[in-house]
Specification:
The protein has 175 residues and is an alpha/beta fold. It is 36% helix and 23% strand. It has a 6-stranded mixed sheet, covered by helices on one side.
């Protein structure tokens, strides 16, 4: 019983660290939400419709890549918020991409339909590994010039609000 309590305490502290916001992020001190200023990794992925999506084709737009999975409870809480953001700011130049991880392609269409996802869903092709994602959901915000500006691990309403504010600022920077 004592071992379970100790394990629960360790997991709580680890979870608190993963979701605590930080002002800046460096390689030495990764955090749950961090400001970044480095080139985004170029990628080419296939979406659920069979279309090829390249980051370079989205230059001039603000891109939010959200790594998620059908199996992820917190992802299910965040997706409706992303749908609302997509509907609100798509016309201002925001592109949201849902990058699936760990699911079979045939599991995605019913999930996408159930949630009414309005943004492209990318099939799992190793993109999460290239972006070094270990927590789901994780979102990256990329500015109009193709630079990573924010990484947010996990989902908490206050983190989502901070991410939304960062996206709003980037959209205000104009094309």
């Amino acid at each position: 019983m004592r071992t379970r309590a100790a394990l629960a305490t360790v997991l709580f502290l680890l979870g608190s660290h993963l979701v605590a916001p930080v002002a800046a992020q460096s390689e030495a001190e990764p955090g749950a939400a961090g400001l970044i200023d480095e080139p985004a990794l170029e990628f080419e992925a296939t979406d659920l419709e069979g279309k090829t999506v390249r980051l370079s084709d989205l230059a001039g737009q603000v891109v939010l890549i959200n790594f998620w999975g059908v199996w992820c409870t917190n992802c299910r809480h965040e997706i409706p918020e992303l749908i609302a953001l997509d509907q609100q700011w798509r016309d201002r130049g925001l592109v949201i991409l849902g990058a699936d991880w760990g699911d079979q392609p045939e599991a995605l269409p019913p999930f996408v339909e159930e949630f009414g996802m309005t943004y492209p869903v990318l099939l799992d092709d190793g993109l999460a590994e290239r972006y070094e994602v270990i927590v789901f959901p994780t979102s990256f915000v990329i500015d109009r010039s193709g630079r990573l500006r924010l990484r947010v691990e996990g989902f908490l309403p206050e983190q989502f609000e901070a991410m939304t504010a960062a996206v709003d600022r980037l959209l205000g920077d104009g094309p």
